Amino acid sequence: MGLPMGELSADAGPLAKLRLVLDNIKFQHTVFALPFCLMAFAYAAYPGPGLDDLILVILAMVFARTAAMSYNRYVDADVDAANPRTKGRPVPSGRLSRGAVLAWTIGSAVLFVVVAGLINLWALALSPVALAIVLGYSHSKRFTSLSHLWLGAALGVAPIGGWIAADQLPWSPVPWLISAAVVLWVAGFDIIYATQDEDFDRRWGLHSLVTRLGLRGALVASKVLHSLAVACLVILGLVADRLGPVYLMGAGIAAACLLYEQHLVRAEDLSQVNVAFFTMNGIVGIVLCAATIADVYWW
Q1: CB neighbours of 271 closer than 8 A, spacing ≥ 6?
Q2: Is the pLDDT of residue 69 over 80?
Q3: Domains observed in the chain
């Protein structure tokens, strides 16, 4: 996109610079939200989305997430530098400048709005609302213990956006149930991720349910949120007339992944947090998206 890449060695090539930027925003984590956007889009666009529309939806998701993650790295640069777990990230380590990530934020946000305008007028009109939600999350830990739910909302707008991208207004319960499941699922796994920083967050006055409820209480809250997320997925399978046995099988696999995720992380043993966070959650979205598309278009 022609944006500043930050402070790299003079002999660093374009690919090395791009890899650094993608590492900074954890581009691979797009897998958490994109499948749910495509899940809603595929359902709403039946009997068949156009390839051009599909490409625009994917681009919108990539630009929105890039803007959100770049802004998060910009806002949290001082916190990341002080936290032993995150001080090696590109910005606090000096490999990427704060100015560069701010430029990526602005450039990606502008491109998101442009792509939203190419999708349809409703997507364009609501694009500032989506940006306010996804960018606002970066400030939430400074003032609320419910920051996990805000992160959930930041990913939970994706299914609504996917539905609108199919030229449908979200009057149906389908996109809202997908969105609710995403909000609860993300909040639940973000609590697990936050257990790594309990002591640091307390010292810095950052808010989370882990610092509010303690480790054991927060893990109970995570279990409750994931149970509610599974309930939303089951209800979706019952009320959505285009979903059937393939989707419900996918929902069962997702539920099993969340159950295993909760089994991996215990108050007395946090050594498996990364496995629970990255592996299990990556499977959930992909399985649900694939099962939905299979049920809607081929079953």
Answers
A1: none
A2: yes
A3: 27-297 (1.10.357.140)
